[in-house]
Amino acid sequence: MKVGIVGSGSIGLLFAAYLSRAFDVNVYTKTEEQAVEINKYGILLKKGSGRTITFVTALPFSKWEGAEDISIIAVKQYQLVDIIEKINQLPSDPKNLLFLQNGMGHLKQLESIRARNIFVGSIEHGALRENPYTVSHNGMGMTNVAVFKGECEPLIQFVSSVPVEFPFAVRDQYHDMLVKKLMVNAVINPLTAILNVENGALVYNSNYYRVLEKLFEEVAEILELENTQAHLEQLINICHTTADNRSSMLKDLEAQRLTEIDAILGFILAEAVKKGKKTPLIESFYYLIKGKETGGKEVKI
């Protein structure tokens, strides 16, 4: 089975390093320069004290044609516009597309895609790209996947061949799967990004934890989560198990990149408006992150 990975950030490199142990993998990069480096040096995967080098075929995104048996779209949500435009201009519809974005703001965009089967996923791994061909696997987790449109059989076939050391799980409902991940991202990411702390600080510092509880309460109400205590315990557990991790939103701000705040809190704010609910904390963190994205510079509203 041939696998295409569109995107060569931390997640793209992480998936390429592991999936290439079982599949023929092509990685599609934003720049030709990165493709040259990956082809020359391979992908260096760092996990604990271990180091492995995997060679894959790297090509610039301009050469992607969606011809692989499954294409994994591992870019930020705000980068999907160009990807979707390219998909809809391909001479033939891609067979199977798996989208791995945070939040749920991208789901409407997926409705416009010409493809036989569309899958979505949520990732529990922690990863950091250190240079164009090196990725550090900082936190082991699960990749949850589900059908957004089309048939499930190709997804099951793919997952059945994934290396056991990089587990996938096929879920029945994409909405419930993404809501669970959205809840986690909506609380941990903005808090750690504004406070400039690792995930564990949110539960180890009693003052930070009080804010975590309040933000969680707002998020849980808008997402209409059942058994909120169980969700809160899951959130606390994630903070403990990923205590030394720096969230993706924090890393984006540190690298002076755009964040996925619109796909995460922006989506929840839109849901709150539909339901006529007030969300002072969610709204505050949303605008704080938007302000940080501009480096604190004045922006006309």
Order of helices and strands: EHEHEEEEHEHEEEEHEHHHHHHH
**What is the second-level CATH architecture of the largest domain?**
3-Layer(aba) Sandwich
State the domain count: 2
User: What portion of residues belong to β-strands?
Assistant: 15-25%
Number of helices: 12
Low-pLDDT regions? none
Architecture overview:
Catalyzes the NADPH-dependent reduction of ketopantoate into pantoic acid. InterPro entries: 6-PGluconate_DH-like_C_sf, 6PGD_dom2, ApbA, Ketopantoate_reductase, KPA_reductase, KPR_N, NAD(P)-bd_dom_sf. This is 2-dehydropantoate 2-reductase. This protein has helices spanning 10-19, 32-41, 80-87, 107-110, 153-160, 174-195, 201-204, 206-223, 228-241, 248-254, 261-275, 280-293; strands at residues 2-6, 24-29, 43-47, 50-54, 57-60, 70-73, 96-99, 117-123, 126-131, 134-139, 143-149, 168-170. By secondary structure, it is of the alpha/beta class. It has two domains: 2-172, 3-Layer(aba) Sandwich (Rossmann fold), CATH 3.40.50.720; 176-291, N-(1-d-carboxylethyl)-l-norvaline Dehydrogenase, domain 2. The strands form two sheets. The chain has an eight-stranded mixed sheet. A four-stranded mixed sheet has the order 4-3-10-9. The longest helix has 22 residues, at 174-195. The protein is globular, with a radius of gyration of 19 Å. The relative contact order is 0.11. The mean pLDDT is 94.
